[in-house]
Amino acid sequence: MLKISLENNILTISDDSGFFYNDDYNSFFVDELGFKEEKNTRVFDGDINSELISNIYQYLMETGVEIVSNDKIENLLNKVRQKEASFQNLTKTGLKIKKTKFPSFKEIQKGVSLNDYQIIPTAHAIELGSSANFSVPGSGKTWMAYLAYTELKKRGEVNRLLVISPLSAFRPWENEYLNIFGRKPRVHRIKSNKISFLRNHLSKSEIFLVSYTTASLYPAFLTEIMEEANFMLICDESHYIKNPRSQRSIAMHEIAPFAKKRMILTGTPMPLGTNDLWSQFTFLFPDENLLGDFEYYKYQIKVNGFAPTKQMLKPYYTRVTLGDLKLPKPIFQRKQIKMSPLQRNIYDAIAGTIFAKYKSRVSEYDELDEWRTNMTIYLLEAAVDPSLLTKEKGMKKLNSNEILDFKKMSFADLIRNYKRSKETPAKIEKAVNEVINVVDKKEKVVVWASFVRTIQRMQDELKKRGYDSFTVTGKVPQDEEADPDDNREKRIEDFKTTDTNVLVANPASCAESISLHKHCQKALYLDRNFNGAQYMQSLARIHRVGMGKIHPKYLMLLSEDSIDEDVDIRLTFKHEQMLNFLNDDFPVLSLDLDNTSVFGLKNEQKADFEQYFKRIKKRQSQKR
Fold it and tell me: In terms of C-beta density within 10 A (0-12 exposed, 13-18 middle, 19 or more buried), how is residue 250 classed?
């Protein structure tokens, strides 16, 4: 029999049965928990709490030993039992809500109603207090989150809101508040260079917005202000903390316990696989040890598969699928553009080099990925505008020795001849004409392009014909903190609200957390790469809830018999995969939204390359 007692903050376990003679049992208390050995007793004078007592009891119960404890120990155990019972009730509530309709939540704010599919996720967030909303992009997660916060505020459970998100989401959070409540929010954007003054804004502001970068650098400042008010903490685009070992994830876990209520939002909870969930749910329930430690979580899935974990998590998340949205069907149109003879020669010179050198490159395994990437970029550039291939682009590895001679002419001479011709590439010419047709009808259009110089050239070509446009690239300052007079947020807002009806942007800097659907229903793709995540995000900018019954239109311009057609094949395949995933209850996506390469994920790079290499081989065989 073991007698467990707590007196004067010292925990003592007395043994009169020889229990501690067992090396495994003794090691658990001495080596793992830090007890001191004193004859037939083990003594602990460290931090004593209900979780420690509960863990000891759980361990001892499994050994079958008889246990006797004093009142102080029983009081601590009761706290744990009450907490466990409360969480069990929460679990039952989560399941019940997902099976029930809550018409009372149809209209929380007067004059603002939810769509039917938004009611259950909103009710779920309110009643659980800590919940995950994994609804697909464009389903209105920001609206649902705001209405949940509003109801919790009415109940007196919270009075401040802290949103951690990508920088690009700041303006949408501010705009959606205005759309819902008809007034500007009392909002404060937390800036890294003014973090020490954060407490001064606590009484002036209700909503605080902070980027993942700033939050990961200054978690202590955030926990300080959260201790001074009742905060609801939202982790927006929570797949950003999928890696539990990253600095941002560690910081989010440090901040999470100081919030009264928590919520995670993302349409892509598992961009790489089931491991991505651990960090997000640990943030959501920091005190519950819901999934165990990370290694144990991975082991359980490896042994038992994902189904038991999915079933266990079911009460804590909601998901609106793509089919629930009933959005107007998008219209896709593709137009093939014939290259000029000079452009064709340049393109074929690069393609011929790839065909000639690929086999030798395969043996150079360490450098193969870099070579593939470089060659892919060269082909993409040649297909849209060969002048991009000059060293101005910063492609230092493109030199006269890298691309083989073509038609008895060096590659450098091919480029010089092309520049002397001063021709406007056929795709750019076509894009300009298509854009003008849209603008002349008093409609707005967004033009997507991969390369910064192409974006600038589009703007210049439109300007020559008397048409203004806005551009957004990585070179444009992110927000007003970076430049109060000119930044991405301002340009996007001006595109929506002014008479300038053209936005030319690249998906890498403008594809996530930006809504254009209420102002623009047409998109033109001047060029694309194999990055499926960026492509899917760009599609969703004009295809979202609230767009009415208008069918969004997408025009893809493809250089004839080029890598453009292979990119189109691969992106169509990835898009179909994505559509299937978005209609799953709990999808595992093969798309990483953080990825910024010209390819998809690492395991997709070879398949992407092989797609266009088939075309190169076919064209080379036809020349023989």
Answer: middle
Q: In angstroms, how far is CA 268 from the centroid of its own chain?
A: 7
- The tokens of 452 are what? 């910064």
- Per-residue pLDDT of 364-415, as tens digits, reads 666 788 888 889 999 999 999 999 998 654 444 566 568 888 888 899 899 9
Enter the pTM of the model: 0.74
3-state secondary structure 98-111: HCCCCHHHCCCECC
Read off the amino acid at residue 377. Answer: I
Count the helix, strand and coil residues of the chain and give each as a percent rounded to the nearest 5.
50, 15, 35
In the numeric block, the tokens 């029999």 are attached to 1
Q: Is the dihedral of CA 256, 259, 263, 266 positive or negative?
A: negative
Helix (H, G, I), strand (E, B) or coil at 139: coil
- Give the tokens for residue 9: 């903050």
Residues in CB range of 405: below 8 A, 6 or more apart? 349, 411
Total number of residues shown for the chain: 624
Q: SS3 sequence, 321-359?
A: CHHHHCCCCCEEEEEEECCCHHHHHHHHHHHHHHHHHHH
Q: Quick one: DSSP state of residue 513?
A: S
Q: Which residues pair with 332 in a beta bridge?
A: 554
Cα atoms found within 13 Å of the Cα of residue 589, Cβ hemisphere only: 29
Looking at this protein, which amino acid is placed at residue 584? D
